[in-house]
């Protein structure tokens, strides 16, 4: 891969090659992840470092991340979009195996010590700013309103135009 990244091919081609190879492997199964804020920052940092290597941009070149991304979404926003799309799809299709478990919340048993683990429903609530699983279900069953809600949340695209290299 190093030969590809250090070659003289265009930045646009390197970027599309990066998205089709590295990003697809990195995001495999990411729609089912529950990420804390710390993990999201770590994942964004890792993705940015890999993108810098792919575009052959050193941190000493002092290129801002906005210029580096050049219209691309951050990886955590792509994960959020995939997660919301999967959840809406599973709720609208009761024949799927994931349908009964997608909005499941633990209600019985005693809580163990420490902070409660982040569940998939908690992650969806945090992504959509909704407060209950009932609100999530009613919003997800209406496909048009769910699409409007999810497209507005995950549309954090860096709009700064970088100078071509």
UniProtKB/TrEMBL annotation:
Protein name (Swiss-Prot/TrEMBL): Endonuclease-reverse transcriptase
Organism: Patiria miniata
């Amino acid at each position: 891969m190093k030969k590809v990244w250090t070659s003289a091919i265009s930045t646009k081609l390197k970027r599309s090659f990066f998205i089709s190879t590295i990003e697809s492997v990195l995001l495999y199964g990411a729609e089912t992840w529950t990420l804390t804020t710390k993990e999201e920052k770590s994942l964004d940092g890792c993705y940015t470092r890999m993108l810098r290597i792919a575009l052959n941009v050193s941190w000493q070149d002092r290129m801002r991340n906005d210029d580096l991304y050049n219209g691309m979404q951050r990886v955590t926003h792509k994960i959020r979009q995939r997660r919301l799309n999967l959840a809406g799809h599973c709720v609208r299709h009761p024949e799927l195996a994931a349908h009964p478990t997608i909005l499941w919340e633990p209600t019985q048993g005693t809580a163990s010590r420490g902070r409660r683990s982040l569940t998939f429903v908690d992650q969806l609530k945090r992504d959509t700013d909704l407060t209950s699983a009932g609100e999530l279900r009613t919003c997800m069953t209406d496909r048009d309103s769910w699409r409007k809600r999810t497209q507005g949340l995950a549309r954090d695209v860096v709009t700064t135009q970088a100078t071509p290299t």
